[in-house]
Design brief:
Pfam families: PrpF, TctC. Its EC number is 5.3.2.8. About 30% of the residues lie in helices and about 30% in strands. The strands form three sheets. It has a 17-stranded mixed sheet that branches. Strands 19-18-20-27-21-28 form a six-stranded mixed sheet, with helices on both faces. A five-stranded mixed sheet has the order 24-23-25-22-26, with helices on both faces. β4 and β5 form a beta hairpin. The radius of gyration is 27 Å and the shape is globular.
């Protein structure tokens, strides 16, 4: 098997990646995917060992060959390669990378060029859709130079016209895979559409944002990201795509009003980060939902014929021509066209190391020897995940080993905890645990792990205070006014819980015990949907961490009534503690720590603790934690162990006093 293969690196639209002829790659899907993983350098989050750029936008591959489809010139297979994990996903499509397919194929001799322009019909292997691509070829040669400008790319280039002919329902078989144009999921109206790319579209205002924020602001709102991911997972199931936790489709989109009747504003996610500009296929889907009636994105009613529509994104806009027709009483999209540009960056030979072609089990053994896996018990984008990635990035050079973050959300942290508890005690598998996994959840339920016996504490990482927040429409301006209302008007208000056994659930229980009130709770799958519903007014009260609450408080979507801690917060100096407000005993700090499996050698634990404390002494790390509403807390393994035992006993007492039922969760996890 050759380890040197030809490759052309291209910028196509607002994406970038290597282009290959199918014959340049190894035969068979498994060998092909191993080559792509090695080419991109997928195993490393920074993709230092390949041509990727550490982002999904430039971790893409185009594979081109002469078409086997009648009436088509080229077959184009798109591959989305993992960032920080060995994966290749060929279920989605990419319209940006599509814009480089025809120029690449012409230059490789697959298609003869005409004088002036050359039209090529491309068959997208991923979806079965056909696209006509028109390229400038003066004197029979591809030209990349021109005056066309696309937002998100510096400079200008030759226009490349993409005319999508039959992309509607290409992946799922239906334009609206759920059978409805609007579904209600977790209290939010959602439109699931399969138009060039399976999308889950939500009104931005329904999630408490305007939809015109910069991507960096949306990426910083971890509660919003968790909420979007929770909705996306449910949408994937309803669309018939199955469990999409390890897939990039459906792509989430937040929409809001445009600048005119012919424009709509979109924020497109990839899926766990907001796109710096916008995907082409995503723009086709958004424009389709905008043009068709009855969706959350629908604009004014439109007649049959061609319409010039604009999708406004963070870096500018994408202009799309959409052709509508009537099929009986239904309005349908016949085609959509738009302009992109592309540029060949370099052409040459790609060198792949031996391990690229190792069998998966051999690669796994190699990874165990060379890297540490840090298991995070929550989904990507949350507070725990953010802190874990800060720690991982700083630990790696100190330990001389790569530290990979692996998110294993589920069962309020029990899935991740059981995984680490059963891992080999060699210091290669660690857990970013917190008060929920090692004190609250075990106090609430019988689990398949023991938070004390099954772990070797490595060291404390940090802590974050808890806030008491209410929806702005709640008339109570202070804690005592709220307590009086809860006593005199039982049932008027509901509190939001992030799940049984989570910090917001336990703090609410402690508050009720201390204040002599009884509040109805509404349980959600995570803090993100819980706080989003509180911000929208579906629930009125919540006890989130400062990290979760801060963006909502800063934007006045929630009002902070009190701090569930021993002192006021520097960032919220006018917000009293609950004790100051007359409710004593509700002192809850959410702490975070690093754990190894039990029986990990003491010298290995000590080495990890030493490196961790060195990281936590870095002023840059201290600043990053503070920016995210957390405080660095270094310490010895013994200090973390003592914290676990003390908090476990405390929360067991809360469970007993509050009459909270205990149940066996192990079966639920296995199911």
């Amino acid at each position: 098997m050759s380890k040197i293969i030809p490759c052309v690196l291209m910028r196509a639209g607002t994406s970038r990646g290597p282009f290959f002829l199918r014959e340049w790659l190894p035969e068979g899907d498994e060998a092909r995917d191993q080559a792509l993983i090695g080419a991109i350098g997928a195993s490393d989050p920074l993709q230092l060992d390949g041509v990727g750029g550490g982002s999904t936008l430039n971790s893409k591959v185009a594979i081109v060959s002469r078409s086997k489809e009648p009436g088509c010139d080229l077959d184009y297979l798109f591959a989305q390669v993992g960032v920080g994990h060995r994966s290749v996903d060929t279920r989605p499509n990419c319209g940006n990378m599509l814009s480089g397919v025809a120029p690449f194929a012409i230059e490789q001799g697959l298609i003869p060029a005409q004088d002036g322009t050359t039209k090529v019909r491309v068959h997208n292997v991923n979806t079965g859709a056909r696209i006509d691509v028109t390229v400038r070829t003066p004197a029979g040669r591809v030209s990349y130079e021109g005056d066309a400008r696309i937002d998100g790319v510096a400079g200008t280039g030759a226009p490349i016209l993409l005319d999508f002919l039959d992309a509607w329902g290409a992946v799922t078989g239906k334009v609206f895979p759920t059978g409805k144009r609007i579904d209600r999921m977790q209290g939010v109206e959602v439109s699931c559409i399969d138009a060039a790319m399976p999308l889950m579209i939500v009104r931005a205002t329904d999630l408490g944002v305007s939809g015109r924020e910069k991507p960096v602001a949306l990426d910083a709102d971890t509660a919003l990201l968790e909420r979007i991911e929770s909705l996306r997972l449910e949408a994937g199931l309803r669309m018939g795509l199955g469990d999409v936790s390890n897939s990039v489709i459906p792509k989430p989109v937040l929409v809001s009003t445009g600048d005119s009747d012919s424009s709509i504003t979109s924020r497109y996610f990839t899926p766990r980060r907001c796109h710096a500009s916008h995907a082409v296929t995503g723009a086709i889907g958004v424009a389709s939902a905008f043009a068709l009636p009855g969706t959350v994105a629908s604009g004014v009613a439109r007649t049959a014929g061609c319409h010039q529509l604009t999708v406004l994104h963070a870096a500018g806009q994408i202009d799309i021509e959409v052709e509508l027709s009537h099929d009986g009483a239904e309005v349908c999209v016949q085609r959509a066209a738009l302009v992109r540009t592309a540029r060949k960056i370099m052409q040459g030979e790609l060198y792949l190391p031996d391990y690229v072609f190792s069998r998966p089990e051999e690669v796994a053994k190699l990874a165990v020897r060379k890297s540490i896996t840090l298991i995070v018990p929550t989904s990507a984008g949350g507070g725990n995940d953010t802190m874990a990635r800060i720690i991982a990035g700083k630990l790696a050079p100190l330990l001389g080993q790569e530290v990979l973050v692996d998110n294993r959300a589920g069962a309020n942290g029990a899935v991740a905890s059981e995984y680490v508890a059963g891992a080999a005690p060699d210091g290669q598998t660690l857990m970013f645990g917190y008060v929920g996994t090692h004190a609250m959840n075990p106090a609430r339920q019988k689990l398949g792990y023991d938070p004390v016996a099954d772990f070797a504490p490595v060291g404390l990482v940090g802590s974050s205070p808890t806030l008491m927040v209410v929806h702005p429409d709640v008339p109570a301006n202070d804690v005592q006014a709220l307590v009086n209302a809860l006593r005199t008007q039982p049932g008027r208000y509901e509190y939001a819980s992030a799940g049984d056994g989570t910090p917001p659930h336990f703090v609410a229980a402690l508050f009720q015990l201390a204040s002599g009130t009884a509040i109805t709770g509404r349980t959600y799958e995570g803090a993100a949907p819980a706080i989003a519903d509180t911000a929208s007014g579906r629930t009125q009260l919540m006890f989130p961490s400062l990290f979760t609450a801060y963006p909502f408080v800063q934007s006045a979507r929630l009002r902070a009534l009190a701090v569930a801690g021993p002192q006021r917060l520097p960032g919220l100096p006018d917000v009293p503690t609950l004790a100051e407000a007359g409710v004593a005993g509700v002192d809850v700090t959410q702490w975070y720590g690093l754990f190894a499996p039990a029986r990990t050698p003491p010298e290995r634990v000590q080495a990890l603790n030493s490196a961790l404390n060195q990281v936590l002494a870095d002023p840059a790390v201290v600043q990053l934690f503070e920016r995210h509403g957390a405080r660095v807390e270094a310490g010895t393994p013994q200090m973390l162990g003592d914290r676990v035992q003390a908090d476990l006993a405390r929360w067991q007492a809360v469970v007993s006093q509050g009459g909270l039922a205990v149940r066996d969760q192990r079966t639920a996890i296995l199911e």
